[in-house]
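Dear support,

We are seeing what looks like truncated structure output for some complexes. This example has four components. We would appreciate it if you could run it in full and send us the complete token output so we can diff it against ours.
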Amino acid sequence: MENPRELFQIMTRRFGLLNKYCCSVGGCDISLAQSHLLYEIDRRHKPSMQEVAEALGTEVTTFSRQVQSLIQMNLVKKTPDPNDRRVYTLSLTAEGKMIAGMIDQQMNDYLDEVFSYMTEFEKETVLRSVKLFNEAMGKSSRCSAPVTG
Amino acid sequence: MENPRELFQIMTRRFGLLNKYCCSVGGCDISLAQSHLLYEIDRRHKPSMQEVAEALGTEVTTFSRQVQSLIQMNLVKKTPDPNDRRVYTLSLTAEGKMIAGMIDQQMNDYLDEVFSYMTEFEKETVLRSVKLFNEAMGKSSRCSAPVTG
DNA sequence: ACATATAATTGCAAATTGCAAGTTATAGTT
DNA sequence: AACTATAACTTGCAATTTGCAATTATATGT
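Here is the complete output from our reference environment:
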């Protein structure tokens, strides 16, 4: 377990499984992809379709259909952009916000439990580390997909 | 960006995109799922199908077919377990090992680049943090899928 | 006005998945 | 030894998801 990639790979997978698990929370059952979609729309301000698709690393064409199904489920709203009518901006409905909030809550509850196995100092160190790492990734040239954060 | 989940979510997504990107490395083109499969078989000792499927959070039935295609590509080998003939143990072929190795190399190269934006001390802190976090996740009851590490 | 570029959608074929049922092998019971 | 239950893995089939090429509608530049 000296290999840096190994460390991140394991963490990432576990976290991914948790995300999957949190999809069936509070009576609602959505797919992992849908959960990511809700998350990403939630944290941006009226993003365009392309913006979100790119952030998620999804083909726009696939994304378009994913959005359609979330609209049908009444979790997402699509509004034509008055400045450029080719563009649609996305936002969550009240119900969508609720679901996204519940998932977020559940995830943080889980993280809290994980942190309970550490000292407060360790927890702070871990959080600062992740933040630092995210910033460094942002500076790197290789990772083309623009994940703002 | 105070939200712990947010920090991990962003990191995880970026890392996931990188993984995806590293699939088309060295002339070989495999899917993300296949890459995960190679990775997981590589780091275990002659695992059974179930063991790997479970670690990856994939249905065995889906997994079975994924393995089949990797066998066809001559990257994976499936051997009947002499002790229990219901079981098949998985391993990588020479070619599979090579591909897995190249992906791993590429990932670590990328991580090196990311770490180049930090001091040596910060890098060590980050790596220790991830390790610590993985251990804590391992202790936690909630994450049912057994990702050994 | 015209050509070009951009944001999003659609059609269609191919790949991926999930469930139920099937196969083969082990384990436990009488 | 015959009988039942369970476990590991596979297969059939229907449904969902995807990727590519083509299409629509709007915007921009000359």
